[in-house]
Amino acid sequence: MLVAGCCLIACDDDNDEEYITDTQLSVLQDNRASLTYLLRNSTYGTVPGTYPREAKDLLNDAISTLDSVIERVRNGASLSESEFVAVVESVSRAIDEFKRQRLYNLSDEVRTYIENIMAMADRLRSMIADDSLWGNHKDQYPLSGKSLLESAAADLENYAERLNSGAIPDMTEEMYDEVMDKATATLEQVKATAWPDNSNITWNLYVDGNQGTYLDFGYSEDYVQFGAQDNQAFTIELWVNIEQYCNRPGEDNSTFLNTMTNDPYWSGWRAQDRVKGLMRTMVAHWEDDNYSNPRQWEPGWKKSDNWNQNRWTHYAFLFRDKGLPGFDTPTDVKAYSMIDGSRNGEIIRVGEPWRTYIPDNSVANQIHMTGFCQMDKDGNRNEWWSGYIKKVRIWRTNRSEDDIYRSYLGAEQGVTADNPDLVDAWDFEVIGDAPQGHEYIGLKGHKVTIVGARFEWRETTAIPDNR
Fold first, then answer.
1. What DSSP string describes 180-202?
2. Between vectors from CA 56 to CA 90 and to CA 46, what angle results, nearest 5°?
3. pTM recorded for the entire structure
4. DSSP letter (8 states) at residue 238
5. What are phi and psi of 232, to 5 degrees?
6. I need a surface site. Which of 149, 309, 351, 387 has the fewest CB within 10 A?
7. 343 Cβ partners below 8 Å, 6+ apart?
8. What is the spatial distance between Cα 84 and Cα 74, in angstroms, rounded to a whole number?
9. 266 and 296 in contact (C-beta within 8 Å)?
């Protein structure tokens, strides 16, 4: 089909009137040349591949109409853009209709063959264009099948063109059957590849915390008590993807997981984002000797504003009362964070042995661990956000940096039901059919409930990841 080409449109600065350059004229003249070429160089007659003499009328009428438009433009008339496009499209329709006239010079049998062959080609192209047929879902076809159908459709169209032009003068039913059988075999080959189930689909849980939904892991002492007093060690590990930070005016925290309470004094831990990009964990500790003056450590790291939005980030927090290994004075290093497999940000380094972790009131008040928010002592949600947490791991030991790095790479070790160091593991990324319901059980039996209606399982391939 012919196209309109480039048409230059400008404005007069004095009167703001639109005017069109003579580019329109050159395009119209090119279109007329195409019509004239067909008229003069086509073969007319009654044998296959030629045009009936009356087909000339189509081209002559189109040339006559176009000449009147060309004359107007030569005399200074300006065509609107829509009028110009309509003229060019009418020329294209005339050419297409002229070319179709060849069918009337073929036998009825051959014409039927051509119609059926083109109908099969159209069927294949319709399948190719139907996005609902292609993908990784049950009963869909792998995308690789599109190229097979594309090739089959092109072969059919080329064969029909050869028939239409008379290049195949002695067409037989056997030849027709062979062409159609080949196309049908390709179609059946593609249909046979339809996925029998959803085993190729990966889903992630989306929680819209900004609209009131959150995860309730219930209460378990295992979430906050990690050994004897003054000798506790733990690791919090998760994958997180923030779609939207907390939308509450004046709130600059978005809490991933929380076990903390300040009733009557700070206890427990809380992993969160602060000020849109600072990833950190708050952990309660004794500041002074004799278990007095409860305070918080808040080691964290920020790369830049919003850097962790719409990306999967692996976050881990390591803590040990007796000190973490890997430093010149390991007994002094209580806590630090690892982000995407590397140690980053502030390191809590203190010399006083009494500055140890406090779980007291989280246990006494049986504080529920929550995800996508922090609950105050009156049961009100705070620090909510919207997005994804695909894996949660809580360990009653300080994992090694090599362990954390392997987890970041997707090759985690020790996540088994019989590992005594693992408190529990929850996966909110599943393969197969999308989960149903509001309740899910961790690897070691701890239940989590989705509270609220604003959640859904989304295909992993549709989730932004700006890593």
1. HHHHHHHHHHHHTT--SSSTT-E
2. 130
3. 0.73
4. E
5. -105, 150
6. 351
7. 336, 337, 401
8. 14
9. yes
